[in-house]
Inverse folding.
């Protein structure tokens, strides 16, 4: 295998040079945490960054909700310094609304990047021509991108997209060229069409073709579950970074594992069961700090279910965790589980 401009040789191992730039933003790694609807809140982002993610993103933000000054929308955008580098992801189908939303985002919240969602396949989003639906009209795609770049000013703009609306009509190459022409600094490609949803195998060859077609940062997304996957995607596609989403749910340590492997060429041990339990407890404490005990614990239940995935006896443990109401309940249920394992 030839060594690319992003690689160096450590002994007999190939390792990726740590760090990269997106516009005026410098990142300390090549593995970023995906924006996940209903999941990528502050506690999730903090856990990802502390584990080694190079960057995180908010959940997708409605441009219409933002310009209408909706409190819930604004609360989803608020962040603190320990969550940076951070991108705020916007979605919408009206270019003027998106321009205004980008300007408000930069002026009032000051993220490190503004991202445009052209990938969401959820019905309530695409029915309003948002998310992946915008890819059905590349004229509209261009107008939205140009508007957001204008509204964001000096803040870098990225887009996250799918290959197209359907597998039979890919538009990602043209959309990537449009993004480059309109001043976008990075393109993330989830290598599936909208019609694919999350099923089937992601077509990494599409990421390779996109990287060959545009001379801006390309981030690959889709089926990156292990450090070996991350390395293979970089090797096979030539993309600049990888984005991890579902593999990080209940497993923020995946960022540490991937970052270390890309930096050194060495695999590190996966966290032990005890370490995973302690990570889940830290996450639960962050949820309570952010949302209060009652709301935080209700929100945390689904995360706890992900944390114990693969545990011996998880089928019995999970229903107990889905009933926790207090932080002490988490300690009690998991403590009883560990005692029973002994």
């Amino acid at each position: 295998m030839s060594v690319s401009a992003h690689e160096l040789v450590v002994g007999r191992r190939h390792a990726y040079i740590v760090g990269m730039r997106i516009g005026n933003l410098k990142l300390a790694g090549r593995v970023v945490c995906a924006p996940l609807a209903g999941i990528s809140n502050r506690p999730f982002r903090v856990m990802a960054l502390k584990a080694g993610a190079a960057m995180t993103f908010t959940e997708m933000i409605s441009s219409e909700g933002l310009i209408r000054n909706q409190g819930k929308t604004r609360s989803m955008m608020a962040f603190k310094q320990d969550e940076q580098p951070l991108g705020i992801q916007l979605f919408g189908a009206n270019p003027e609304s998106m321009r205004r939303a980008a300007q408000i985002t930069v002026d009032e919240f000051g993220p490190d990047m503004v991202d445009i969602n052209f990938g969401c396949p959820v019905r309530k989003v695409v029915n309003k021509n948002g998310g992946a639906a915008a890819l059905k009209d590349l004229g509209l795609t261009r107008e939205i991108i140009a508007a957001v770049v204008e509204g964001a000013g000096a803040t870098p703009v990225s887009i996250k997209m799918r290959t197209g609306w359907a597998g039979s009509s890919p538009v990602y190459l043209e959309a990537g060229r449009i993004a480059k022409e309109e001043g976008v600094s990075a393109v993330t490609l989830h290598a599936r069409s909208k019609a694919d949803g999350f099923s089937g195998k992601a077509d990494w060859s599409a990421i390779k073709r996109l990287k060959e077609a545009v001379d801006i940062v390309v981030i690959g997304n889709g089926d990156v579950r292990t450090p070996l996957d991350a390395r293979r995607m970089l090797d096979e596609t030539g993309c600049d970074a990888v984005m991890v989403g579902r593999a990080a749910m209940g497993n923020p340590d995946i960022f540490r594992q991937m970052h270390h492997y890309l930096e050194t060429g060495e695999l590190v041990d996966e966290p032990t069961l005890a370490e995973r339990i302690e990570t889940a407890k830290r996450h639960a404490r962050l949820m309570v700090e952010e949302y209060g005990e009652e709301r935080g614990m209700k929100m945390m239940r689904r995360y706890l279910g992900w944390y114990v995935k693969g545990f011996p006896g998880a089928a019995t443990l999970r229903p107990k965790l889905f009933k926790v109401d207090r932080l002490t309940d988490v300690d009690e249920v998991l403590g009883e589980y560990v005692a029973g394992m002994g």
